[in-house]
């Protein structure tokens, strides 16, 4: 006869296994994003973001109906404070999308990968500044190495890598604010998208009326790819939410390096972006900071398990 403790342990192991599968799927999807957005680069960034919002909402509402979650969504819409938080987070994630699509369209995938590499360290800094989380010496050194890498790149090129910084800050702030709101992921994401949908739809209608829009004016292939942005946007977010429920934050932290690594490899192998000596030095600073940060996180988790 199987002991209850054994059953519980098997269930926990299975949950972790599923969590890793969901997490890998989410970060691999995000890793291939540059290929998708390169295929629709003829669409201006603001128009593409508007399509992402509108088509994501359509897909999410189908999921809400399938999950029978309309009541939860309508209840959330009656909470002014929660809506204010979600409006702030949706502006941040939309900004992140806009900057990322712009980076793809102008051939700056390498800089976008830099942004997502430094994002974990930005999150650590935001936790210190706004949540009063105590930083230990290895974390301070990690932050210093990341700052050194960004400053070196800025000094050598004569300007700040604003794309990387905007991506890291917008996603870091999104996570910080979203952390304060305990809402079921599908419902929260749907309401976030719903709040911006009227503005996005108005902009798309305006483009259509003025003849400036791309959708339904170019090729059939493009007209099929643009609506897919809703599925492309929503699925990895939902996979990530499912993974986050089943995995430790430390595990999620390690998995999140998959996406910028894939962006980095795509930039220098497929998109032909130049990886200079300056890039190498800057990335080495940042990768060193990430390695130290990861090692410290791993040691912390190990100590917790021993106790």
UniProtKB/TrEMBL annotation:
InterPro entries linked to this entry: EamA_dom (IPR000620), EmrE-like (IPR037185), RarD (IPR004626)
TM region(s), chain numbering: 20-37, 49-70, 82-104, 110-131, 138-155, 161-177, 186-204, 224-242, 254-272, 278-298
Superkingdom, taxonomy of origin: Bacteria
Membrane protein topology class: Multi-pass membrane protein
Subcellular location: Cell membrane
Cross-referenced Pfam families: EamA
Entry keyword annotation includes Oxidoreductase: no
Gene Ontology CC: plasma membrane
Domain EamA: start-end pairs: 18-153
Entry keyword set: Cell membrane, Membrane, Transmembrane, Transmembrane helix, Transport
Predominant place of localization: membrane
Family of this protein: Belongs to the EamA transporter family.
PANTHER family found in the cross-reference section: ACYL-MALONYL CONDENSING ENZYME-RELATED, SOLUTE CARRIER FAMILY 35 MEMBER G2-RELATED
Name listed for the protein in its UniProt record: RarD protein, DMT superfamily transporter
Organism lineage: Bacteria, Pseudomonadati, Thermodesulfobacteriota, Desulfuromonadia, Geobacterales
Gene giving rise to this polypeptide: rarD
């Amino acid at each position: 006869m199987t002991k209850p403790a054994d059953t519980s342990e098997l269930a926990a192991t299975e949950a972790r296994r599923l969590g890793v599968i969901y997490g890998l799927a989410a970060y691999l999807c995000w890793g291939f994003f540059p290929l998708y957005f390169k295929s629709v680069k003829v669409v201006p960034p603001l128009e593409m973001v508007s399509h992402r919002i509108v088509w994501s909402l359509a897909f999410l509402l189908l999921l809400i109906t399938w999950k029978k979650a309309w009541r939860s969504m309508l209840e959330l819409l009656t909470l002014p404070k929660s809506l204010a938080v979600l409006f702030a987070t949706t502006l941040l994630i939309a900004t992140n999308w806009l900057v990322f699509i712009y980076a793809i369209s102008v051939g700056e995938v390498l800089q976008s990968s830099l942004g997502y590499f430094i994002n974990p360290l930005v999150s650590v800094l935001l936790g210190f500044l706004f949540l009063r989380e105590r930083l230990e010496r290895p974390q301070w050194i990690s932050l210093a190495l990341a700052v050194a890498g960004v400053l070196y790149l800025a000094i050598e090129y004569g300007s700040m890598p604003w794309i990387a910084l905007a991506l890291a800050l917008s996603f870091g702030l999104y996570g910080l604010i979203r952390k304060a709101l305990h809402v079921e992921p599908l419902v929260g994401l749907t309401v976030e998208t719903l709040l911006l949908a009227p503005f996005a739809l108005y902009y798309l209608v305006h483009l259509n009326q003025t003849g400036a829009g791309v959708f339904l004016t170019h090729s059939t292939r493009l007209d099929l790819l643009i609506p897919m942005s809703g599925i492309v946007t929503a699925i990895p977010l939902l996979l990530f939410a499912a993974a986050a429920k089943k995995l430790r934050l430390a595990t999620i932290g390690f998995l999140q390096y998959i996406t910028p690594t894939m962006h980095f490899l795509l930039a220098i192998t497929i998109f032909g972006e130049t990886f200079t000596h300056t890039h190498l030095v800057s990335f080495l600073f940042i990768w060193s900071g990430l390695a130290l940060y990861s090692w410290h996180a791993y040691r912390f988790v190990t100590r917790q398990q021993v106790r």
